Amino acid sequence: MNSTSAALPSPTQVTRVPQVPTAALGALFVALWSSGYIAGKIALQHAGALSLLEVRFAGAALGFAALLAFARPAWPGWRALLHSAVVGALSLALQFGGVYVGVQRGAEIGVAALVVGAMPLVTAALAPWFGERVSLRQWFGLALGLGGVVLVLIDRLSFGGAGLDAYGLLVLGLLAISVGTLYQKRHASAIDLRLGLFVQHAVAALALLPFAWAEGFRLDGSAALGWSLVWIIGNNSLVASALLFALLRRGAANRVAQLFFLIPPVTAVFSFLLLGETFTGLKLMGFAVAAIGVYIGTRPAREVLSPLPQTRLGERVG
């Protein structure tokens, strides 16, 4: 072997790329997803709920289409595209549409946040139907996580005078994102990320188009609306959605869903820092309880070492 060939790296050395830790991806996802609630709160002062969602999903679909024009991933087949379309209808159109319209019809914001915050529990309850197992330790973490969310939102829980239809829409949104998350993990996480997210957002935009049209495309064209939409589309629909996609590829859907327990507490912190809303000691306690619950529910189970294999004479190998 000559010195030139000896110096060449092996194929694994050439292709190995350091993988970003899952915990770091999860933290970034929670921060970006939570910030979207702040931008959304501002944007809803200048736009109709369904009109806002239509622009958000259509803008994100165009963004992913631009990425696809450069990447040109391999064609996955119609079945894979159909699975992504189902996820778009559930996790995007039905979830956000249900929650936004429910709030528009009078459901209190605090109750809406609590209902959506229960998503990890519903996901865990449905997980066995999608081939996932939830341990007792995870259920304990889920209970703590939901308790933390209640502590954060307790001063905002009021049912007001909204009708049952408004709260029914919130529950519809909760079921949609729970089933959509499990469905994506089971059927739609192997597709190219950019192509999958393009299909999801395009389907959501098409599904909501008639409703936005009926709403009259209420957008006031203000600078506040424009900057809010840039943030929501860029950071939430493009980056945060890609992070969620990547996290679902790496772990069980019910574990990934538990990150949603951290979104109300982190949103409360952002509201305090950016909007001047109060952040009480009770909210801080809720943040801590939710974080502990997420840690308990998402950390991997301790591996049990199996004994070394034995020969026919009873001697251990190794």
Account of the 3D structure:
The protein is mainly α. It has a domain at 21-138 and 158-254. The chain is 72% helix and 0% strand. It has 14 helices and no strands. The protein has helices spanning 3-7, 11-15, 22-43, 49-71, 78-104, 109-117, 119-126, 136-153, 164-187, 193-215, 223-250, 253-257, 263-275, 281-298.
Question: Given the structure, what is the number of helices?
Answer: 14
Helices and strands, in N-to-C order? HHHHHHHHHHHHHH
What are the low-pLDDT stretches, counting only 5+ consecutive residues below 50? Answer: 3-17, 303-318
- Cα radius of gyration in angstroms: 22 Å
Structural class: mainly alpha
Biggest beta sheet summary: none
The percentage of residues in β strands lies in under 5%
Distance between the termini: 33 Å
How many β-strands, per DSSP? 0
Helix content: over 70%
Give the mean pLDDT: 83
Please state the overall shape, judged from the principal axes of the Cα atoms.
globular
